[in-house]
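Exercise: predict the structure of this protein bound to acetoacetyl-coenzyme A.
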Amino acid sequence: MAIAPIAAEFDESGEFPHATIKKMGEMGFMGIEIPEEYGGAGMDSLAYVLALEEICKADASHGVIMSVNNSLYCHGIMKFGSEELKRKFVTPIATGQAVGAYSLTEPQSGSDAGTMRSRATRDGDSYVLNGRKSWVTSGPVADYFVVFMVTDPEKKQKGISAFLVPGNTPGLTRGKKEPKLGIRASATSELIFENCRVPAENLLGQEGEGFKIAMTILDAGRIGIATQALGIAEAAYEAARQYAIEREAFGQPIGAFQGTGFKIADMKTRIEASRLLIYNAAMAKERSKTDGGRYSLEASMAKLFASETAMYVTHQAIQIHGGMGYSKECPVERYFRDARICQIYEGTSEIQRLVIARSVLNA
Ligand code: CAA
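Solution:
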């Protein structure tokens, strides 16, 4: 059961690739850094990005589903969850039996995530959740969600808390699937909470810690999206390199023309620079497991550079292919559409620049 041969078909239909995702889960791809005792593969952050890169070369939709399960879902629970929460909520995802998702954004709060309005109110031994969340990757299919809601509006960001919500909880419904430009086989939707009651023990971390938890998780997530961008760029580069060798014009391979050769040179150089930034961020994340330090700067630099690179490389790959590059018979048009989201989700390129600037200016 291979991913590359079915990528175009699932992109066209927009169907969620249940069978291959299940298979990836069984093979250990959904919990690469999770210790074996919780059903994961027990490997390190570098192993995670190497595996994700290969999946994303074949198909970015499979890649983002993998990235969300590993980084946005499992990573946060492992870092902030109690032993009981880890066993209950990480194991089914790490073993590939279930799909996880992360829900921060709301219709009126995207980049300015701290201004969310959804409310969680304590009622005895439970919390009652109300509100509307948007742009949830795997929203239509996920079995479990990490959800962020306001518990104390007066405290603004310090009044946000994180909850673990099973997808079958009464009062939780999923909105319509978003029709998207790219990563079309990954399903995205709104979540609607109407008096959705979860046990108080499903609180992740402490009340009021939710915003920091969301941001800490996103640092890990951004390395995943950077890696997704790298995989897409590598696939587009390889297709363009082959075409530049094989296609002839004016009596020679088009790669022999400086106009094409220089494009290929810039594509290769930017890809290798992205790779090093990603490996650097993965190693910073690995160090943080022992020293507890933040790696926001390294993660944001990797995501910014790799996603801008993916856009540049896929754009040039179409140009090198000429008319063929514009056709659905050739995968580079899919790479181009899939690359675009990397500059937007898990923090736009503008937000990455903001994080980097604040970090180096201590602002
Ligand atoms: N780690 C730990 N703590 C962090 C942190 C981090 N990475 N970033 C910020 N914090 C802490 C700060 O230290 C601060 O705490 P103190 O008050 O105790 O000092 C607190 O959080 C507030 O920080 P800021 O003042 O920096 O907050 P801000 O309102 O200025 O916002 C931001 C900062 C970087 C712009 C942030 O809002 C942000 O990242 N926005 C983008 C959101 C985003 O990426 N959304 C994508 C959602 S997921 C998705 O795309 C869908 C999907 O399913 C894939």
